[in-house]
């Protein structure tokens, strides 16, 4: 055999060996590692974290599926690096170089308090046992601050096995505006009440007032000052409502006394979340007030008595028959001198993220409703509604509306739909024009 041929073969073998010895791409197999997430180990870590928080006079954290997915995705990526023998300089940077706050905003749609920089997210990581992780974080100032922060109310935990008996833990802590989880102790005698503590919130520092209602909207306590824990009244059934009042901002949290048990005990899986937004919280500005109390007011306004809405638990209703000037609309906009209601009537779950109603007298966007309460704007459910209503009037209970997802009070001089025709826009493109109110306007999205 010629020397040149032998040399070529040797070079080829060396190249093949070099390729075989190179670490695999860490992204390969990440999905396999994600599927290895140990739910029981994750639950045990969450129980230990919550027990620690309660011992330090902080509310236990409510499991959130978005934060869990975020934790599992990052843990799977890091586990892939470990399997490939890659150097890991920072457990909190993903394959695209994004930190937890950037990932939460750009990849997971975590709600902000305004701009993308005004987001409440933090992340802890450890490799070892549950006991090791807790002890490590107890003795690390930056990790301890994250665990015990009064800002965070929700959490996601990943636990992916590594080698031996060790586990890679990633914990993502978060908070969203107007989402105030309430959990129940194991004995079902006590509520753990969260509160708003974000530095970005307009209600930070405002002492909340609390009142409990049954699921029919009947009060079962008087108005009380906020406290970390509250005894569950004997009159409570399986489900109750907690009304928070913080100045002119209010939020309602639905609590299931059988399901929403605080994860405080190792070996017990946390509550299984319903498919809706978790926890089931709606928020308004001075829009929801118990019948027996006066609405908080801004200067120059007269307080009015307004009933608490019970639409959260109203069964889904069949859509009202729509006018026939547009076959198969996605939305019906109904408006008069006191209110404007947008109701989804199709099963297609229209995307409302770019919606704007506008004329020369004013405008409203989906973003403004989202600033008040969280809802799936990109896939808005059938028979759910967004509402504008005149200050000093009761929150309307629109026909055919199973759930008012967000409601905003407006002053009388901002009832723009009564001042003239208005346009319906999506992403600044005209969809259709609606006549001056009172009236009804049908819209097909897309």
Structural notes for this entry:
- With 446 residues, this protein is α+β, with helices and mostly antiparallel strands.
- It folds into 3 domains: 34-175, CAP (Pathogenesis-related Protein p14a), CATH 3.40.33.10; 182-256, Immunoglobulin-like (Sandwich); 331-443, Immunoglobulin-like.
- It is 20% helix and 26% strand.
- The protein has 8 helices and 21 strands.
- It has helices at residues 3-21, 30-34, 39-55, 65-83, 100-106, 130-138, 141-148, 366-370, and strands at residues 62-63, 120-128, 154-161, 167-175, 182-184, 190-193, 209-214, 224-225, 229-231, 239-246, 249-256, 281-285, 331-335, 339-344, 355-359, 362-365, 384-390, 403-410, 422-426, 429-434, 439-443.
- The chain has a 5-stranded antiparallel beta sheet, with no helix packed on it. A 5-stranded mixed beta sheet has the order 18-17-14-13-21, with no helix packed on it.
- β3 (154-161) and β4 (167-175) form a beta hairpin.
- α3 packs parallel to α6 (130-138).
- The longest helix has 19 residues, at 3-21.
- It is globular and about 70 Å long.
- The termini are far apart.
- The model is unreliable at 1-28 and 273-324 (pLDDT under 50).
């Amino acid at each position: 055999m010629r020397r040149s041929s032998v040399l070529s073969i040797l070079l080829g073998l060396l190249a093949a060996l070099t390729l075989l010895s190179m670490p695999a791409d860490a992204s390969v197999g990440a999905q396999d590692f994600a599927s290895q997430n140990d739910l029981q180990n994750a639950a045990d870590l969450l129980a230990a974290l919550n027990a620690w928080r309660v011992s330090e006079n902080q509310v236990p954290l409510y499991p959130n599926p978005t934060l869990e997915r975020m934790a599992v995705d990052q843990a799977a990526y890091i586990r892939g690096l470990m399997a490939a023998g890659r150097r890991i300089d920072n457990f909190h940077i993903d394959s695209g170089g994004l930190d937890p706050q950037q990932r939460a905003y750009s990849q997971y749609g975590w709600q902000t308090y305004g701009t993308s920089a005004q987001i409440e997210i933090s992340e802890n990581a450890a490799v070892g046992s549950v006991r090791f992780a807790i002890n490590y974080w107890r003795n690390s100032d930056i990790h301890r601050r994250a665990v015990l922060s009064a800002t965070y109310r929700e959490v996601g935990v990943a636990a992916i096995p590594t080698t031996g008996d060790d586990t890679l833990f990633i914990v993502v802590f978060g908070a969203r505006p107007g989402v105030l989880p309430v959990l129940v102790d194991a004995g079902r005698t006590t509520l753990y009440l969260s509160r708003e503590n974000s530095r970005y919130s307009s209600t930070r520092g405002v002492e909340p007032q609390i009142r409990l209602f049954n699921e029919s909207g009947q009060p079962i306590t008087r108005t009380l000052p906020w406290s970390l824990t509250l005894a569950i009244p004997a009159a409570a059934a399986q489900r109750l409502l907690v009304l928070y009042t913080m100045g002119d901002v209010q939020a309602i949290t639905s609590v299931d006394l059988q399901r929403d048990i605080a994860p405080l005990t190792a070996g017990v899986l946390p509550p299984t979340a319903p498919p809706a937004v978790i926890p089931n919280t709606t928020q308004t500005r001075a829009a929801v007030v118990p019948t027996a109390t006066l609405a908080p007011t801004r200067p120059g306004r007269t307080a009015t008595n307004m009933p608490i809405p019970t639409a959260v638990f109203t069964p889904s209703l069949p859509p009202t028959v729509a006018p026939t000037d547009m076959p198969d609309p996605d939305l019906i906009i109904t408006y008069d001198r006191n209110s404007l209601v947008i109701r989804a009537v199709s099963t297609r779950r229209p995307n409302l993220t770019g919606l704007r109603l506008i004329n020369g007298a004013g405008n409203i966007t989906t973003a403004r409703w989202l600033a008040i309460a969280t809802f799936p704007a990109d896939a808005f459910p059938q028979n759910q509604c967004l509402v504008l209503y005149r200050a000093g009037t009761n929150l309307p209970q629109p026909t055919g509306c199973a759930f008012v997802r967000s409601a905003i009070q407006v002053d009388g001089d901002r009832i723009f739909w009564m001042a003239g025709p208005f346009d319906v826009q999506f992403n600044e493109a005209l969809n259709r024009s609606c006549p001056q109110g009172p009236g009804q306007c049908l819209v097909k999205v897309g």
